[in-house]
Amino acid sequence: MKLAIFGYGNLGRGVEYAVQQNPDAELVGVFTRRDPASVRTQTGVPVYAANDVLAHRDEIDVLIICGGSATDLPVLTPALAKDFCVVDSFDTHAKIPAHFEAVDAAAAAGGKLALISCGWDPGMFSLARMYANAILPDGKDYTFWGRGVSQGHSDAIRRIPGVLDARQYTVPIESALAAVRSGAQPELTTREKHLRECYVVAAEGADKQAIETAIKTMPNYFADYDTTVTFITADEMKANHSALPHGGCVIRSGSTGADGAHRHTIEYALKLDSNPEFTASVLVAFARAIHRMAQRGETGCRTVFEIAPADLSPLTREQLRKSML
Amino acid sequence: MKLAIFGYGNLGRGVEYAVQQNPDAELVGVFTRRDPASVRTQTGVPVYAANDVLAHRDEIDVLIICGGSATDLPVLTPALAKDFCVVDSFDTHAKIPAHFEAVDAAAAAGGKLALISCGWDPGMFSLARMYANAILPDGKDYTFWGRGVSQGHSDAIRRIPGVLDARQYTVPIESALAAVRSGAQPELTTREKHLRECYVVAAEGADKQAIETAIKTMPNYFADYDTTVTFITADEMKANHSALPHGGCVIRSGSTGADGAHRHTIEYALKLDSNPEFTASVLVAFARAIHRMAQRGETGCRTVFEIAPADLSPLTREQLRKSML
Fold it and tell me: Domain containing A94 — which CATH number?
């Protein structure tokens, strides 16, 4: 299958690496809204201007759109889905139904197939929730994130006056995790599930106490959590906080049998050194499925729920039965 | 959907309970090879003779076959797949390809749809392996079972002269699990992954030392493991070892990025109070999918790999996008 990347940031670079691990995939090119001459890819794959993408229509089986969910994807995915089979990682949960409708209309009109909201959350975590709910109708869902870097929360700290740089780690609270894993089905508040650890580089002469207060009282982002703030130097930031680890787990705790006498716990957990590279690896596997489904004549928009797992694998059905079942 | 149970042991009773948790499912009846008058169901569902199943052909959307993999299912599933949409939990991994061929031929000939090897291993563990392999092509798989009762190993102990009853627990070794979860990708021998704990009721005057030796040196079952043998009374067996808990986890540890610099761990873990009831809950969710796919005109045999997750859920695609993605 011939893939292309639209948008070349951390996620796009991750897709470039992921394609190299899949011998049945070939990377046709990277499309960027920057000056193509200014972009150097990791593996020497050609770089084109975003505006020229239509000229490459016939060379691309699936276009992987690597943009932000706030402003990029709501415009890009519907615009491109008319002419390309596309995969995106749109992750604003509340706006997924509207995004789906827009992409579905475009893809159906163009006779193409699209997949939205692919990655790990939404994506693999959504699948974990859905399978577990179908198996244990009588139960309770829990999602924990971390330990990992939240880009949105890091950005929010950077907007505070006097802050030069910041990194925020979301940290699940071990005692809450243990209670959930025990099958006790606890009711947990926001504060009881996660801590927020902040590392901040302050400008010289900045009022650190004011910065700390501004962080800890910030509504939506930090006010509902126990938050720690640690001031560090720019060198320490670079040395110790350059990576983008993340992860978390989806747990469903449920009951079966006479009067729900038997408890069961289903857990799906991820521990990721690189959030964007893992997300990219998920995108490439699902691009394979979209390519196959499009070849079978399917059109319109899909989510991860509608993809038969076998379509993600380079193995044949027979090989899968023999080696994975 | 109208379901029926063929074979009424622990698994069949589990299916009966699971149907009660699914408002869109109705249990038409239980079919047994025993005298139907001797079987009392948990919920008052009618019991019929196995030989009369064809007379109920038009009342049943999916027949869930609850039999043993050694001798029952290789015969029953192909025989029934000609006239019914069927789901089974065939779990002899090495014989799955042959079982698939037999069931596929029967189902295709009868214009019916069948699903084999459904449950948690094979089943949900197979899906966990397949998804994780598709996402991380460069990596290593690990499966740990337990802490849980192995029926096969318990039966093997019961066949030793002087043994009245036995229960064998498979126990994953914590240090091995920790090494795998760390991303270190260790090479582990059979002995390094699991312990086997045996509880044995000996006949009066039996040679306990001989029984212990017979267990610990039994090829295939125990010789390759560190095994503990504890003699208990029949009352202790009943009081402390009547349940059938099980579980385990599938872990894939893999790398992405430049020179595989970033490590990732994907883990799917189950902790089950009742192995048969959980397996039954999986069977009922997949029976829903088989019913829907059959209504769309599909025929032949499938595995869990070929079932789109959305087909397992009672929710509509729109509800799934809104609540689970």
Answer: 3.40.50.720
Of B122, B63, B65, B112, nearest to B91 by C-alpha is B122
Spatial CA neighbour of A95 closest among A134, A130, A132, A122: A122
Percent of chain A with pLDDT over 70: 100
Q: Is A307 on the interface with B (CB under 8 A)?
A: yes
Please tell me the distance in Å from A85's CA to the nearest CA on chain B: 20
Predicted-complex ipTM score: 0.96
Q: Are residues B152 and B233 in the same domain?
A: yes
Q: Are residues B264 and B128 in the same domain?
A: yes
Pick from B15, B92, B256, B290 the residue to mutate for testing the A interface (most A CBs within 10 Å).
B256
Q: Both A61 and A154 in a single domain?
A: no
β-partners of residue A200 are: A166, A231
The CA angle B310-A66-A55, to the nearest 5 degrees, is: 105
Q: Which of A303, A321, A322, A323 to mutate to test the interface with B (most CBs of B within 10 A)?
A: A321
B325 CB neighbours in chain A (<8 A) are: 93, 96, 117, 122, 126, 303-305
A31 plus A72 within the same structural domain: yes
Among the partner-chain residues A264, A310, A325, the one whose CB lies closest to the CB of B278 is: A264
Cβ–Cβ contact A164 with B under 8 A: no
Residue B41: the pLDDT is 96
Q: What is the pLDDT of residues A8-32, one digit of tens each?
A: 999 999 999 999 999 999 999 999 9
The whole domain housing A177 covers: 124-274
- Is residue B143 exposed (0-12), middle (13-18) or buried (19+ Cβ within 10 Å)? middle
The Cα–Cα gap between B307 and B114 comes to 11
CA dihedral of residues A167, A172, A173, A175 (deg, nearest 10): -160
With CA atoms as reference, the chain B residue closest to A136 would be: B281
pLDDT at A20: 97
Residues lower than pLDDT 50 in chain B: none
From the list B293, B279, B15, B313, the residue with the least C-alpha distance to B125 is B279
Same domain, B139 and B268: yes
Interval A124-145 mean pLDDT: 98
Residues of chain B with Cβ-Cβ distance to A272 below 8 Å are 262, 264-265
Q: Is the domain of A164 the same as that of A37? A: no
Q: Express each pLDDT in A156-192 by its tens digit.
A: 999 999 999 999 999 999 999 999 999 999 999 999 9
Q: What is the pLDDT at residue B43? A: 93
Scan residues 32-71 of B and list those with Cβ closer than 8 Å to A: 42
* Domain boundary residue, one of A234, A249, A274: A274
